[in-house]
Amino acid sequence: MRRTATVVVAVLVAATMVGCAVSGTAGGSPGREQERRNTELVRDAFARGVSGQDSFYAILAEDVQWTVVRAEAPRTYTNRAEFLRDGAGPIVSRLDGPIRAEVHELVADGDTVVARWRGVATARDGAPYVNEYVWVMTLRDERVSRVSAYLDFVALDELLQRVTPAHPYVGMWVTPDGHIRQELRPDGRYDEARGGRVGAYTGRYEVRGTRIDYWDDSGFTADGTFVSDDELHHGGMVFRRES
């Protein structure tokens, strides 16, 4: 029932946005050539797939304002780097390749392009990931400067909860004196040994960019920062990757 309601809302939003755009272009505005160029720019970007900075997201302005529209806790990212790290990153890291965009409709009105499209990809656990999107984009100087993004949050939340994200920090991390050994496992779990005490702390972790968050099985939380590919700062201590 929840999924059905979400999809119905997305379809209604798409119909409203596309309908407004069509009514805006019907009169033959003097900017029709710019609308055509904007539409082709967006179409070509979708053809590159939707994943990292060299995909569709290459046409985002550095200061893009990207809003994920939802009834509870909408989120706005205020620049391209923030969006790629905190918005797209948690999704891309759970997929085994880029999202293939099946574009249903692109409609331009002035400097706005509305895209209604389906995203299809394979998650890292081998299951398909399919979502329906409506993106309302404002373009400036052939770059996307503002986005209001609508999508099926049921499908997204299932992916985020089911699949462990990939990251480059899997392995053993050790303090210089060798007393603490923290293993970051590929299944999103960690196991920390202290001296001869194996499994002194265990729990789950998640990496976003260079930040790591821990949720220990005993109930406490912690965090840390990877200052390089081989050095982790956590709990006032320095860990180095074991080669």
TrEMBL record:
Organism from which the protein derives: Mycolicibacterium parafortuitum (Mycobacterium parafortuitum)
SUPFAM superfamilies: NTF2-like
Entries under InterPro entries matching the protein: Atu4866-like_sf (IPR038646), NTF2-like_dom_sf (IPR032710), SnoaL-like (IPR037401), Uncharacterised_Atu4866 (IPR020955)
Gene3D superfamilies reported in the protein's UniProt record: 3.10.450.50, Uncharacterised protein Atu4866, PF11512
Signal peptide residue numbers: 1-21
Ranges of residues in domain SnoaL-like: 54-146
Protein name listed in UniProt: SnoaL-like domain-containing protein
PROSITE patterns found in the cross-reference section: PROKAR_LIPOPROTEIN (PS51257)
Domain of life: Bacteria
Protein's UniProt keywords contain Aminoacyl-tRNA synthetase: no
Keywords on record: Signal
